[in-house]
Write a structure and sequence with these properties.
Layout lengths: L2 H11 L5 H7 L5 H8 L10 E4 L9 H17 L2 H6 L1 E5 L5 H14 L4 E3 L6 H11 L3 E5 L8 E8 L7 H12 L12 H6 L3 E3 L2 H12 L15 E4 L6 H10 L5 E3 L25 H10 L3 E5 L6 E6 L5 E3 L2 H19 L6 E6 L5 H8 L3 E5 L3 H4 L3 H6 L3 E7 L3 E3 L9 H17 L4 H12 L1 E5 L2 E3 L2 H17 L4 E2 L2 E8 L13 E5 L4 E6 L5 E10 L2 H20 L3
Parallel strand pairs: 2-3, 2-4, 3-6, 7-8, 7-9, 12-13, 12-14
Antiparallel strand pairs: 1-5, 4-5, 9-10, 10-11, 14-15, 16-22, 17-22, 18-19, 19-20, 20-21, 21-22
Length: 564
């Protein structure tokens, strides 16, 4: 069925007075908008659903969320009564319709005879992931679009291992979802009635405490080992991190910290930040202003669902410098390994996990401490998905991360966690301050010891149908015409992951190594309309590493920008 016919079907079936119908009537003379909204179903994959909120099959709305939930319910029911009794735990972030979508989801699952757990209000994604394992549920669902702009919402699905659903589970769910008629095939029940009847259980504050206890148990140093008077600034970017992050700081004894007041409370429009992604330096604008007034040594931020975490450090000139995810990863890897060595708790069989597009400097640091670094595809369903495998091989999992400001320190929290990352970074800053050092000093020491790396992770945003097609052309053209020389250096090795590579499963990623110690990778984003690039150079000075990286980037961008 083409986009116009789908549009007409929705117009016919939606009831008068439904806001979705009014929205569709308003675009009746805009064929381009109709095509964008109806040319496909909103894709359900290992990241669940994600898209702009609005009317249409390619949008997040009550029909598409209902269809997805009914499909997941059918998948769970097919697994039998035991799976239904284990139930599903549901969370949501502060976005427009997140609470309403979560209540719709709970009502549909309950109507299908599946036990449901919900939170009384918004909660971080990592807490949802943690409670899947604590409660022993068959699945978890979080209504969130993570760090996307305000126009977006999403639907993250988890399975009983506490990870986002694997490709196998996602495919099974998707098959069921496709068989559901969004208008007539969804079983529904009232959310409030479900709570009254005990079919939907509202979780108490003891579960929040369990999550924080799991995080705080990851502490390496404490008490007199730390300078707890260190001045800190934190912003939750109007998201779910505000209460748990502040509670964690108080629990750990930090007392000289401030929160960005304008971004302390939930705001679905993200009025003061626009793009609520701590991976983007402009997100720190208000934090920097407060930090200068407060004299903060460290600025910290989490995204709206609190799984991403990023920082800015005060350098030797007193200026705030934003760190990319790799650099924060270096500090965390170094601190965990060095701290556990000092504490006498460094295991003989330690292991960490990083994604294939994350800098190899962390592997060099790990090797120096006798710790093995495993690799995985991007995404924490893959990074944390390796935890059972690592443990089965006899290793102790110590840490996992990827360059997109995601970190997983606790083996029982199978997703990236901005709260635990924040705790460890604040602890590290307080620990080194006690020794007369700042985190900025420590980062420079790491480069001096292990090599001067430059990291650059730019992307090209290409929205809509044409954008998606152009991204496909970029990948296929580069794949069919592999460069042999880039930035004046020869390509000495290429890894194409399209059919899998070594022990890494199939994924649309290209990775290139050069004869000057540099490497780079290219891949389309799985959750956003963009193609992503990763450039890494290791030279004998920071200036040289940056210069080499810029040459490589210029050559690659010249190639892809020429692809129409």
């Amino acid at each position: 069925m083409d986009a116009q016919k789908r549009y007409e079907e929705w117009l016919e079936k939606l009831e008068d007075g439904d806001p979705l119908k009014a929205e569709l009537i308003a675009i009746k003379d805009d064929p381009t908008e109709i095509k964008e909204r109806f040319y496909q179903d909103l894709a359900f994959g290992t990241a669940g659903l994600r898209g702009k909120v609005g009317a249409g099959t390619n949008r997040m709305n009550f029909l598409t969320v209902g269809k997805a939930t009914q499909g997941i319910a059918d998948y769970i029911v097919e697994h039998g009564q035991e799976a239904m009794d284990k139930g599903v735990v549901i969370a949501h972030d502060p976005r427009h319709f997140s609470k309403e979508f979560s209540q719709l989801t709970a009502g549909i699952l309950a109507a299908n005879g599946i036990k449901v757990y919900v939170f009384p209000d918004l909660r971080p994604t990592p807490e949802l992931a943690y409670l899947v394992r604590v409660l022993g549920t068959i699945s978890g669902i979080n209504i969130t679009a993570s760090h996307n702009p305000k126009e977006y919402n999403g639907y993250k699905a988890y399975w009983e291992d506490g990870c986002q659903v694997s490709s196998t589970v996602a495919d099974g769910m998707y098959e069921k979802i496709c068989a559901v008629d969004a208008f007539t095939g969804v079983k529904k029940s009232d959310f409030s009635k479900g709570v009254e009847e005990g079919k939907i259980i509202v979780l108490g504050p003891e579960y929040d405490r369990m999550y924080l206890d799991a995080i705080e148990a990851m502490a390496i140093h404490s008490g007199d080992e730390l300078d707890l008077d260190i001045p800190l600034v934190y912003t939750p970017l109007n998201g779910a991190g505000s209460i748990p992050f502040r509670t964690m700081l108080k629990d750990r004894g930090f007392h000289n910290w401030a929160i960005v007041e304008e971004q302390e409370h939930p705001d679905p429009d993200f009025t003061t930040v626009g793009y609520p992604n701590p991976e983007s330096p402009p997100a720190f604008k208000l934090s920097e202003e407060l930090g200068k007034k407060f004299g903060a040594e460290l600025l910290m931020a989490t995204d709206p669902d609190s799984d991403r975490f990023a920082i800015e450090l005060r350098d030797d000139n007193g200026e705030y410098v934003w760190l990319n995810g790799n650099q924060t990863g270096y500090l965390l890897v170094n601190y965990i390994l060095d701290g556990r060595k000092d504490a006498g708790t460094l295991p003989e069989n330690g292991a960490m996990v990083k994604s294939i597009v994350t800098s190899t400097l962390s592997s060099i640091i790990a090797e120096a401490y006798g710790v093995k670094m495993f690799e995985s595809l991007t995404g924490f369903k893959n990074i944390c998905g390796r935890i059972p495998e690592v443990q089965k091989l006899g290793y102790e999992y110590m840490f996992g991360y990827e360059e997109s400001v995601g970190y997983a320190a606790c083996p029982d929290i199978r997703d990236k966690d901005g709260i635990s990352a924040g705790m460890l970074v604040a602890e590290a800053a307080a620990y080194y301050r006690k020794q007369g050092k700042t985190l900025w000093n420590v980062l420079q020491d790491i480069y001096a010891k292990y090599g001067y790396f430059n990291e650059d992770e730019p992307n090209i945003v290409l929205e809509g149908i044409e954008g998606a097609e152009r991204i496909k052309r970029m990948m296929s053209t580069v794949r069919e015409n592999l460069p042999t020389e880039v930035g004046g250096a020869k390509v000495v090795k290429v890894a194409d992951y399209i059919n899998g590579y070594e022990d890494i499963p199939a994924s649309n990623v290209l990775r290139f190594w050069l004869d000057n110690g540099s490497w780079f990778a290219i891949r389309p984003s799985g959750t956003e309309p963009k193609i992503k690039f990763y450039f890494y150079s290791n030279q004998d000075s920071a200036e040289k590493a940056k210069e080499v990286n810029e040459k490589i980037k210029a050559d690659i961008f010249a190639i892809v920008n020429a692809i129409e």
